[in-house]
Amino acid sequence: SQKIEQNSEALNIQEGKTATLTCNYTNYSPAYLQWYRQDPGRGPVFLLLIRENEKEKRKERLKVTFDTTLKQSLFHITASQPADSATYLCALGDQAGTALIFGKGTTLSVSS
Amino acid sequence: DVKVTQSSRYLVKRTGEKVFLECVQDMDHENMFWYRQDPGLGLRLIYFSYDVKMKEKGDIPEGYSVSREKKERFSLILESASTNQTSMYLCASRPGQSYEQYFGPGTRLTVT
Prior knowledge:
CATH class of chain B: Mainly Beta
Largest sheet of chain B: 7 strands, mixed
CATH topology of chain B: Immunoglobulin-like
Number of helices of chain B: 0
Oligomer: heterodimer
Largest interface: A-B, 19 and 26 residues
CATH architecture of chain B: Sandwich
Strand content of chain B: over 45%
Order of helices and strands of chain A: EEEEEEEEEEE
Mean pLDDT of chain A: 93
Mean pLDDT of chain B: 95
Shape of chain B: globular
């Protein structure tokens, strides 16, 4: 069956460093991969989408890479700030776009 | 800005009660989704709808039903609430021409 893993439940880093979160998947060939941010008690908020034929996407301090051979996506937050502290979810989608498969999330804590 | 609203932030119901969770989006999105989110299990899809009066089962539809009589409104119904349905319920919508999902704030349901 399809499986998506975010390899760290929690990640603690210091302000100013780059946070790198990993998303691995098996038994699936996604058309795209998305990253969401979720704050406690709130719904997820969309951050970035990367398609299967793209290697890298950037948005401000965020960078996502997608390696369909390794079946892995890396999510980077450069110059991290305490306000970046949240849970980050990766999600896979098919071409039909009917439904997403979500990972369990990685909780990032950025200390000042 | 896209706005997805859910009828209640917190809800407490008794076992056996019929429970209605309402979701409304204001951006004329074709697709709407209901997820539940539990610690250690992540987000799991219950049902989705790609058009008025249309519905598709997700990964965990047992014990739930849905209704979509109008494009902007998607209701989740627990016919006879049970304690194992205690969870955070999240509604999302998605326009037909893109893949990112917009989530509501969630309803934390407790069944006692």
